[in-house]
Amino acid sequence: MKIGDLVEVKGCPPFVEIPTKKCGCFFCTGKSNRIGYVISVAPRDGFQVMFDCGAFQLDAIDEAVGGVEVIDIDQRAPEVRSER
Ligand SMILES: [Zn+2]
Question: Do 5 and 65 contact (CB within 8 A), yes or no?
Fold first, then answer.
């Protein structure tokens, strides 16, 4: 993860024991599409990431455990890159 990266936050696990319970996290309450843009560095190896529902700090550990994935735009759409 670095400044300028697009990142995607993985979905929250469902509440198996209480199906009617809703997740109260930043992304669920904000109805975010969970895709964000890394705008700056933050303390403790973290990054400030701008999502559609607002800014949120992600830490290096979030990426290490697989909760956050960097989206490789070049790999997904090489034809877009060549048109620039
Ligand atoms: Zn959630």
Answer: no
